[in-house]
C-alpha cells in the first residue's frame, strides 16, 4: 500500500525493484505521475521570464501561485535530477515487461515544455542519445543477455505517429500516399531530403480491439530487432520521419503524437520451465511523446500549422476527458462512460489508461512565468491522472496456452494408450495411483526424517551405554582386585583420591575392630579356644564375607552348638543346626551380593557425609567394645568362680548367665538397630560385624548364649 500525495491510498501490484509480481494481478495500481520541470531555456531568459514554480524541499510537491500539488516524483529545478527519472519511474516498468506486464510511459505537457527532450524521441545514433528511450533500450538488452540461458527472447519495435487524426507508420519503408502528405519540418531527411518515400504502400493502419479487449494496430510495421543497434536505428529512422515543425514557441515542435512500442516475447527453455513459471509471455512497452498543447496566438501558427494545432488540441482534449472520466472517483464507481473513442490517441492509449497496463505519466512543464497558465493546466491534469486506476495483468499468449493444454492432453492420452495396449490400468486408475505415489513419497520423506532423528538418539544412548559399561567394568575390576586381597595402595591408580583414601581408612579400621573382637572372643573362652581350630587368617573369613560371604565353608567348630556335658546328642543337633545356619547364610549371601551392587553406588556418595557417618559409628563401636570388655571381664571372673564350684551349682550359674543375657539383650538390640540404620547400605560391613558378634556368642558356647547367638544370627538376616 502506498500513501499517495493527494491522500489516496493505492494498492500497488508490486512495488519491488524487479517491477513484477509473478502472480496474476488481483489489485489495481494507480497511474504514477512524475513532474519534470525543465530549466528556463535561452529564449525565455531573453524574454526576461522568471521561475514561477516552487518546490517543497524533500517532498514531491510543487507550488504555483497559491496552488499546491503533490505527485509521485518531481524532477528538475531544485528537486530530483532529471537523469534519475529512468531509475525511479521507468526501470520498474521495464523489469515488469520480463514478467509479462504491459507498460506505458507517457510524456505530456504544453509545447516546448521538454517532452521530446525527456523521452529522447529525437534520438540520433551519432547525435542526441539522451532521454528515457535510450536507457530503456539499453536495459532491455542487458536483461536479455542475462536471461538468455533461461529463455528465448524475441524483440520487435513499431513506431507510429498520430497526425491530424491519422495513424502513420514511421517504420514503413514503403509508405502509402497518405503517409507522405506532410512536408513541413525535417521529416524524411534520412530518406531523400524532406519527403517521405513514395511507394506502392500498404492499406492504412487500423486500430482494432481484440477479443480480450486489447488494442492492436493492424497493418503496422513491426521490425524484429536482435541488437541494441538495430533497435536504436529503428528509433532514429522513425524519429527522423516524425512530423516536426517550427513554431514561435519551439523551433522543432512535434506536430504529432508519437508512440514507440517495444514488444518483448519470451519463451522459457524446456529445462528451465518450473511448475509455476510461464512457458510463453508477451508484453508491450509504449513510449509516448505527445504533441504539446498550444495556443495559436502564442505559437503564431497559421494555415497548415494552425490546423495541426487544432488537431493536436482536439486529441489532447479527448485525452483530458478520458483522464477526467477515469480520475473521477464517482464516475469510476458508477462505471461511467469513458470516451476512449473520441480520438485515435485515446483509443490507442485505452490499455494504458484504466486498462491492464502499468503506466507512468511524465508531466513536463516550463518554469517560465509566461507559461504559468499552461503549466497550471498541465499540473491539474497530471494531478487528476493520479486517480486513474489500472489493473495490470500478465499477458499470456492464448494460442500458446492452448498449445500447452493440448500438449498435456496428448501426453495423458499417450500414457493411456500405452496402458491400454499393455492391459494396464485406465487413466483414472493411473491418476489415483499417481496420487498414491505422491502421498507415499511424502510420507516416506517424513519417515526418513524420523529415522534420522531416531538414529541420532540411538547413537547417544549407545554412547551412554558404552560409558556405563566401562564404568561398571572398572568397578568390577576394582572389586575383584580387592577380593583378591589387593590393598588400596595397589589400587591407587584406579580409585579416585578422596573417596579411595576414606574407604581405605574405614576398611582398615573395620579390620582392626574385627581383630579386636576376635581377640575378645578368644580371651573370653580360653578353654574353648584351645579346642577349636583358629584360623591364622581370622580376618580372612570376614574378608571373604565382604567379598561374597561363603558361610558354608566358614570354619565354625560344630561343638560350639553342643550343650556342655551332652556328647550323646552331638552329631544330630550339630548337623541340623549347621544345615539351618547354612541355609540362612546362603540366603544372606544372595542378598548381600545384591547389596554389593548398591555398594558401588554408595561409593559415589558425598565423602564428607560418609566420613561423619563412619566416625559416629566408630564411636559407637568403641563404646560397645568397652562395655563388652567390661562384661567379659566380669563373666571371666564369674566363670572362674563357678569353675571351682560343684556341678550342682552349674545350674545356678547358667541362670545367672541367662539373667545377665536378658539384661544385655535390649542394649544389643538397640545397638543393632542403630547399626542397621547407619549401615543401611553398608550391609557387608554390618554383616561382618554381626558375624563377629555371632562368633562371640558362639564362642561362649553355653546354651543360654547360643540362644543369644541364634537371635544375633536372625537379626543379621533381617538386617541384610
Ligand atoms: N531538461 C532540459 N534541459 C535543458 N533543455 C531542455 C530541457 N528540456 C527541454 N529543453 C529544451 O527545450 C526545448 C523544447 O524542448 P522539446 O522539444 O523537448 O519540447 P516539447 O515538449 O517536445 O515540445 P513540442 O511539444 O513542441 O514538441 C528544446 O530546445 C530543448 O532542448
Contiguous low-pLDDT stretches (5 residues minimum) are 1-25, 180-200, 525-570, 698-708
The second-level CATH architecture of the largest domain is 3-Layer(aba) Sandwich
Look at the structure and give the CATH class of the largest domain. Answer: Alpha Beta
Number of helices: 21
Distance between the termini: 83 Å
- Helix-strand makeup class: alpha+beta
The helical percent reads 40-55%
How many β-strand runs? 20
* Small molecules bound in the structure, each named once: adenosine-5'-triphosphate
Q: How would you sum up the global shape?
A: elongated
- For the record, the count of structural domains works out to 3
Overall description:
The protein is α+β, with helices and mostly antiparallel strands and 720 residues long. The chain has three domains: 383 residues, 3-Layer(aba) Sandwich (Kinesin), CATH 3.40.850.10; 71 residues; 224 residues, no CATH class. It has 21 helices and 20 strands. Strands 4, 8, 9, 10, 11, 14, 17, 18 and 19 form a nine-stranded mixed sheet that branches. A three-stranded antiparallel sheet has the order 5-6-7, with helices on one face. The chain has a two-stranded antiparallel sheet with strand order 1-2. A hairpin with a 2-residue loop joins strand 10 and strand 11. The longest helix has 57 residues. The chain is elongated and about 175 Å long. It starts with a strand and ends with a helix. The relative contact order is 0.08. The N terminus is likely disordered. Bound molecules: adenosine-5'-triphosphate (ATP). Adenosine-5'-triphosphate binds next to helix 3 and strand 16. Belongs to the TRAFAC class myosin-kinesin ATPase superfamily. Kinesin family. Keywords: ATP-binding, Coiled coil, Cytoplasm, Microtubule, Motor protein, Nucleotide-binding. It is found in: Cytoplasm. This is Kinesin-like protein. It comes from Sphagnum jensenii.
Amino acid at each position: 500500500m502506498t500513501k499517495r500525495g493527494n491522500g489516496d491510498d493505492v494498492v500497488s501490484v508490486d512495488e519491488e525493484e524487479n517491477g513484477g509480481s509473478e502472480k496474476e494481478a488481483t489489485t489495481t495500481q494507480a497511474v504514477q505521475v512524475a513532474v519534470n520541470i525543465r530549466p528556463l531555456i535561452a529564449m525565455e531568459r531573453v524574454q526576461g521570464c522568471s521561475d514561477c514554480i516552487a518546490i517543497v524541499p524533500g517532498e514531491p510537491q510543487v507550488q504555483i501561485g497559491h496552488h499546491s500539488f503533490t505527485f509521485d516524483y518531481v524532477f528538475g529545478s531544485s528537486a530530483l535530477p532529471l537523469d534519475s527519472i529512468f531509475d525511479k519511474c521507468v526501470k520498474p516498468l521495464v523489469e515488469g515487461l520480463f514478467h509479462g506486464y504491459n507498460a506505458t510511459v507517457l510524456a505530456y505537457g504544453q509545447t516546448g515544455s521538454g517532452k521530446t527532450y525527456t523521452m529522447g524521441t529525437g534520438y540520433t545514433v551519432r547525435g542526441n542519445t539522451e532521454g528515457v528511450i535510450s536507457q530503456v533500450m539499453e536495459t532491455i538488452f542487458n536483461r536479455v543477455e542475462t536471461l538468455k540461458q533461461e529463455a528465448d527472447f524475441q524483440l520487435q519495435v513499431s513506431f507510429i505517429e498520430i497526425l491530424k487524426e491519422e495513424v502513420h507508420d514511421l517504420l514503413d519503408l514503403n509508405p502509402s500516399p497518405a503517409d507522405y502528405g506532410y512536408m513541413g519540418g525535417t521529416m524524411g531527411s534520412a530518406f531523400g531530403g524532406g519527403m517521405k518515400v513514395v511507394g506502392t504502400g500498404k492499406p492504412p493502419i487500423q486500430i482494432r480491439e481484440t477479443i480480450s479487449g486489447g488494442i492492436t494496430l493492424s497493418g503496422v510495421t513491426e521490425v524484429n530487432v536482435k541488437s541494441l543497434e538495430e533497435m536504436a536505428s529503428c528509433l532514429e529512422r522513425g524519429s527522423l520521419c516524425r512530423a516536426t515543425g517550427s513554431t514561435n514557441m519551439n523551433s522543432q515542435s512535434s506536430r504529432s503524437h508519437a508512440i514507440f512500442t517495444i514488444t518483448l516475447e519470451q519463451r522459457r527453455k524446456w529445462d528451465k520451465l518450473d511448475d509455476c513459471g510461464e512457458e510463453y509471455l508477451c508484453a508491450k512497452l509504449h513510449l509516448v511523446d505527445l504533441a504539446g498543447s498550444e495556443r495559436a496566438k502564442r505559437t503564431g501558427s497559421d494555415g497548415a500549422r494552425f490546423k495541426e494545432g487544432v488537431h493536436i488540441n482536439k486529441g489532447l482534449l479527448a485525452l483530458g476527458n478520458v483522464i477526467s472520466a477515469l480520475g473521477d472517483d464517482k464516475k469510476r464507481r458508477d462505471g461511467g462512460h469513458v470516451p476512449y473513442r473520441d480520438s485515435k490517441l485515446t483509443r490507442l492509449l485505452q490499455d494504458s489508461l484504466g486498462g491492464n497496463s502499468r503506466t507512468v505519466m511524465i508531466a513536463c512543464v516550463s518554469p517560465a512565468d509566461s507559461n504559468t497558465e499552461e503549466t497550471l493546466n498541465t499540473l491539474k491534469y497530471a494531478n487528476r491522472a493520479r486517480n486513474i486506476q489500472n489493473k495490470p495483468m500478465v499477458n499470456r499468449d492464448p494460442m500458446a496456452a492452448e498449445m500447452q493444454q493440448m500438449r498435456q492432453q496428448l501426453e495423458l492420452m499417450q500414457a493411456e494408450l500405452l496402458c491400454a495396449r499393455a492391459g494396464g490400468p485406465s487413466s483414472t486408475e493411473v491418476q489415483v495411483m499417481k496420487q498414491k505415489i505422491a502421498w507415499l513419497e511424502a510420507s516416506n520423506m517424513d519417515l526418513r526424517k524420523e529415522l534420522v532423528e531416531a538414529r541420532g538418539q540411538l547413537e547417544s544412548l549407545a554412547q551412554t551405554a558404552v560409558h556405563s559399561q566401562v564404568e561398571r567394568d572398572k568397578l568390577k575390576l576394582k572389586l575383584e582386585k580387592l577380593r583378591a586381597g589387593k590393598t588400596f595402595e595397589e589400587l591407587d591408580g584406579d580409585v579416585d583420591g578422596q573417596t579411595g583414601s576414606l574407604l581405605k581408612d574405614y576398611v582398615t579400621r573395620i579390620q582392626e575392630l574385627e581383630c579386636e573382637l576376635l581377640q575378645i572372643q578368644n580371651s573370653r573362652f580360653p578353654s574353648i579356644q584351645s579346642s577349636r581350630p583358629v584360623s591364622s587368617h581370622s580376618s580372612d573369613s570376614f574378608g571373604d564375607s565382604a567379598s561374597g560371604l561363603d558361610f558354608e565353608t566358614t570354619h565354625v567348630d560344630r561343638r560350639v552348638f553342643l550343650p556342655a556335658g551332652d556328647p550323646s546328642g552331638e552329631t544330630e543337633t550339630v548337623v541340623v543346626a549347621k544345615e539351618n545356619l547354612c541355609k540362612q547364610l546362603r540366603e544372606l549371601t544372595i542378598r548381600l551380593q545384591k547389596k554389593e551392587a548398591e555398594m558401588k553406588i554408595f561409593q559415589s556418595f558425598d565423602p564428607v557425609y560418609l566420613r561423619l557417618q563412619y566416625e559416629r559409628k566408630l564411636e559407637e563401636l568403641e563404646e560397645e567394645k568397652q562395655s563388652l570388655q567390661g562384661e567379659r571381664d566380669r563373666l571371666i571372673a564369674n566363670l572362674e568362680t563357678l569353675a571351682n564350684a560343684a556341678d550342682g551349682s552349674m545350674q545356678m550359674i547358667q541362670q545367672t548367665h541367662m539373667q545377665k543375657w536378658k539384661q544385655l539383650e535390649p542394649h544389643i538390640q538397640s545397638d543393632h538397630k542403630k547399626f542397621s540404620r547407619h549401615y543401611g547400605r553398608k550391609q557387608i560391613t554390618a554383616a561382618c560385624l554381626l558375624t563377629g558378634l555371632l562368633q562371640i556368642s558362639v564362642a561362649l558356647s553355653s546354651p543360654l548364649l547360643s540362644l543369644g547367638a541364634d537371635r544375633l544370627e536372625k537379626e543379621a538376616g533381617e538386617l541384610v
